[in-house]
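Page 42, continued from yesterday. The earlier attempt failed because a stray header line got pasted into the input along with the sequence. Redoing it now with the clean sequence only.
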Amino acid sequence: MPSKRVLSVSQLNAYIKGVFEDEIILHNVTVSGESEEFRITQGITHFTLREGDCRIPCVLFSVYAPIPAGTVIEAEGGVRFYPKTGKVSFIVKTLRCKNIEGEKRAAYLKLKDKLEREGVFARKKTPPARITSIAVVTGETGAVIHDFISVLRGAEIFADIKILPVRVQGAESAAQIVQAAQLINRLNCCDAAVFMRGGGGAADLEAFNDETLARAVAACRVYTVSAVGHETDTTLCDLAADARAGTPSIAAQMLAGQITQTFAAVRSLGETLVFHAEKLYNKKNALLSMHTHALDRFIEVKAAAGVEKVRFLSRMAEKSVDALYLKKLSQVSTAAQQAETAALQKLETSQNRLETASYKLDAQSPLKTLSKGYARLQKNGKSVETAKQLNKGDTVGIYLIDGRADATVIKVEKTTRK
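This time it went through. Structure tokens are written below.
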């Protein structure tokens, strides 16, 4: 039995190259198809010709004006096999755009115009003031979700990220993405939703040009961001979302910026509250000092007047006859006692008023209350006074003497006052 001949990779590729070179028809042929994946690299134009599910990569060794995806073109040239890479390319000598759009491009523009006229793309929501959870609709595998999370973590943003895995291309992908959008609406489980996938050709992004998908994204009650394909790609999903990001990483940067702005606003509000509290305390303290000084002066004047009156009566008594002396002396003593008693009573009353005013002012100071270990709770921007206002899972803001913290309610126990 003869032994089998074993070829090396270079020998096999050299043989294949010879087959291509021997086929004269492959040296000069005109190919027609729809263009996609058009790009220019270092003065060389690369694109792909497509017909249905069949594709062939094309190379033109010169710069050609950008051709929209889906444009029908005729390319004249020859087929070349590259032994080093084992790949086949169509080397274009000349090409002609037939100035008509392919079937998919025409269908896309027709559907886009229809949705525009219905106002589907016009319903835009503003970014929420507070983003604590983000739903991400994307493929279960791939680097895009890792890039998205890495950007958020790099910006020190630790929002709760819920991943809804779907197929991002193929026959079932559009339906799965629609179901994810409907699930987000039904559960109301996030503050923002991101629909994303990595780059690809026009065929890879077809699911995101589905009419039902575009309507589902536009109907989302939460803020939506579309990050599909490359920055140069524009899908119906991009147009239906509230915001469009060129890449998943850019989408993460957009949301991180919004979250950072919210934290800065809350921090600024807290600083303003502390400033005004200190200002009010200093004002009340200065007013109390002024009243205390005026009270002390009033007491001194009244006491001095009483003493002067006693001295005057004493001098008058000395000049009187002996018979009147004892009578006047008694009157003077009585007057002196009454003046002293009145002065002491006024002094005591004034001191009591001063202590009461000081106690009330001190009790009204919000800083003192916080300094005792108490805290003030807020839910949705409103003060929480009773347990009835809280439910399990609520997010509350805790305001302490030296700052603020966020917390999630894990249990609520309501008690009845007796």
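Notes: The mean pLDDT is 81.
Reminder to self: strip header lines before submitting.
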